[in-house]
Request: fold
Amino acid sequence: MQAKLTNRPVEQVIAAIRILDLDPIKLKLMGQEEGQAWSREYADRMELAYKRFLTLLATHPEETLAPSKDVDKFWHGHILDTLKYADDCDKVFGYFLHHFPYFGMRGAEDAANLAKAAETTRRLYRQEFGTTQTGAENVAMCSAAIQADGAAMCSAAVRTEKAAMCSAAIRAGDAAMCSAAVRAEKAAMCSAAIQADGAAMCSAAVRAENAAMCSAAIRPIASARTIAVTA
Reply:
C-alpha cells in the first residue's frame, strides 16, 4: 500500500465514504441469478463492512489490507458499475482506486502476505470499529491458495448465519488428503491426523471471539510448513 492514499484530508474522505449511495450495488448482489442471492439485511451489513474497509484504506495507508470474502464481492459489484465506481472514486479519493485480484495466488510467499494482510485488516477493523471485519459477528469468510515445491494447498474458513465450517485440502505427490472441522450452534467437531507417505498432516478448528479460524500444518520428511488462514 502506498504511503499516502490521497492528498485529501482524511476527515473529508471518511465523510464522503459514509454518504456513498450503494443501493444499486446491493440490488444487484441480492439478485437470485446474476447476484449473490443475499438478503436485504445481509446486503446492508456488507455495505457497512465495505465502507469501513474503504475507511481503513484511508486511515491506515501504510498497511497492506485485505477484505473478507464477501466484502471483496461487494467491492467487485461496485467496480462492475464502471461509471458509478469511477465517479464514486473521484468523489471520495480524487482518483480511481484500483483493485488487484491476484493477491495470494502467486506462490507461497504471496499467499503468506495475503494471510498477514487479512490478519492486519481483522486487527485494525476490531480496533477501529469494535467488531469483526465483516461488520457482523456471524459472518467471516476468507480463502487462500498456496503453491509450493510442487504441492498445492488450499484452506478456507467459512462462517454463515449460525454455522461455521472449515476445511483444508492438501495434495502432495500422488496422495490427496482432506480433513474438515465443523462448528454448528454449540457443537464442535474436528477431524485431524492423516499419515501418508512419511508426511503427517493435521487441521484444527479454533473458535476465538466470534470468528472461525483454520490452520493446516504439513510436515514432509524432515521439514515443516504451516498455513494459517483467518478471517
The chain is about 35% helix and 30% strand.
